[in-house]
Please model this.
Amino acid sequence: MKDYLVRGLTKNEEVRAFAVTTKNLVEEARKIHDNSPIAAAALGRTLSAALIMGDMLKNEKDLITIYIQGDGPLKQVLATANDRGEVKGYVSNPDVILPPNKEGHLNVGGGIGKGTLTVVKDYGLKEPYVSQVPLVTGEIAEDLTYYFAQSEQTPTAIGLGVLFNKDVTIAAAGGFLVQLMPHASEKTVEILERNLKGFRSVTDVYREGKTPEDLLSLVLEGLDVQFTERKEVRFACHCSREKGLRGLATLGRETLQELLTEGKEQEITCEFCGKKYIYTTDDFRKIIELLDNNR
Ligand code: ZN
Model:
């Protein structure tokens, strides 16, 4: 099954919903970053959530970033997505290994610890929209649920999951998000709560070969969901040598002059996709010239 996302609306238009399957792209991210299972789980959950929140954006050029900063060994988890179904991300400490939590699951909450969850929406304007909440459990789905309640005043239920094969490749991954519209009736709320209570887990559904449409049909059983969008999603990084040059320029004239004097090459690795770019003294000279001309 290809990675894809669906968007749905119940017939009474009281609940909007999203579901995504991300097994392939979470596996790709795991390989790029050589992530331990707990790092791959934290990143996979965040990538799936970013894709769903990316689908809520209004314009092609808009970007959403979920940035989790905790005091646990994983330290930071970051994912950025757009409305075109592209996502990228990384965990700052990809080697973390922890014993399972008391339910016998990967201890993602323990890996992240206490800290903050920040959502940045970049609409291409001067100032991006930034909103931050404290982490609730560090398990990511609960933290995002809290974010939607606090920052967007929208009752939201979120499920995220990453399941591994015995050889620690990804067996299933994805997520869902359902949101109550302000005019939702008590009856709808009741049905939704009952469905969510009986829902096992995202990966339980996907490991059986079920689709995102099947998943939403389960969560929204009795509410007659209609699907309004289906799009493929992928891990994508648009880094380039050129963009790396611009990054080097931010080091400032003084540092660049030092590098030039030292005469050493600089290798810069893209933190999202692991691509390596080598910059030579010719590049430093060029940037310094540009900085001087733009003064
Ligand atoms: Zn890259």
Observations:
- DSSP finds ten helices and 13 strands in the chain.
